[in-house]
User: What shape does this take?
Amino acid sequence: MPELPEVETVARSIARIVGRRILSAEFHCARILRGDADQMSAALAGRRIRGIHRRGKFIVIELDAGQCLTVHLGMTGKLLLGGVPGRHTHAVFNLDRGVLRYEDQRQFGKLEVSRGLPARVERLGPEPIACPGRGAACNAAPQNRDRDTESVSGPRISSAPLRAAQHPGNDL
Assistant: This one.
């Protein structure tokens, strides 16, 4: 299963489709869908993509009219822009400029269309990478940081003992 940074990378790699319209959606494998293929195709046709972000290990593609296309990549899922559909292409989203394809060799991923976030995504805990209440300061480059200490909030502590404990042969 992809880790959070990998899912974040995928979400950022397709961010250039924000503002485009989904002309049609084709699904070739019911196993990857949470819902009916025909209903999902109808719900997606004509929708404009308003935003793309990651929520846990889900990629949320926000659409107009308050709908969301939620993608879980599973173990081998990929979202690809352009290209020719292949053997493992299970969904094709024809956009007003280009194509977004979902490929999944093992078919463990899932696609879902819902009004707002699906309940299973909504009830996830806090984002482990986010810094609530700190806004842009969360992603800002650190200034004058000592390499052995880090202060996100609260007192500064040394991380050297933790790093030493990670070496093979060191038991905690």
Summary: The beta strands are 22-27, 49-55, 58-63, 67-72, 77-81, 89-95, 98-104, 110-115, 149-150, 157-158. Residues 134-153 have pLDDT under 50 and may be disordered. Helices lie at 4-13, 37-44, 119-122, 160-165. The chain has four helices and ten strands.
